[in-house]
Amino acid sequence: MAEEEVFHSDGHYEDLGEEEEADFIIADDGGSDDDNKFDFYVGALENAVMDESFRRLEDEFIRSHCHVFEDSDENKLEYTPIFETYVNLVEETIEKRLSEEIPGFSMEEFLEMLVARKEELEGDIFDTLLACTDFEHFKELMLSYKRGAECEMGVHVSPFVLHEEEEEEGERRPDINLTISSAFGR
Known about the structure:
Layout: E1 2-8, E2 13-19, E3 26-27, H1 33-50, H2 52-65, H3 79-101, H4 107-116, H5 123-133, H6 135-151, E4 153-157, E5 178-182
Parallel strand pairs: 1-3
Antiparallel strand pairs: 1-2, 4-5
Helix pairs in contact: 1-3, 2-3, 3-5, 5-6
């Protein structure tokens, strides 16, 4: 019988007693306190950003403003207040949600952590944060949404009067109204 020891990442050994077989076990204590805090904050941020109410709020904002943006190298002055409003909306929503979820939460401290570890972020969280800090990314988000919205088609059918005796020669029927338009009604 062999005694088994476990080495922890903080440098101490743990004696597990005697076992039939000697096994090699690697136990991870989760890293430093800073790593654990950052992971906890990012987890809370993921929950906030992926929450349906946040997604709906962001979608409504983008949908109502994306038509202003044009795909050109020149940026209009009217883009700036839209960008600032978006940044404030996202920051306030995230800060409120994280403050509710994390006791003693400090947005300033979290922003410092994000800047120091920005390479660790990816996916929707990264895109949302990048859109808040980088105007070009924000503009591309708006243009992407606009392109998608322009591709959405709507079919509107109006009721019509049913005539008992229909002509079969293919005559024009103004009483059947079918309109196909983009999501913006153009």
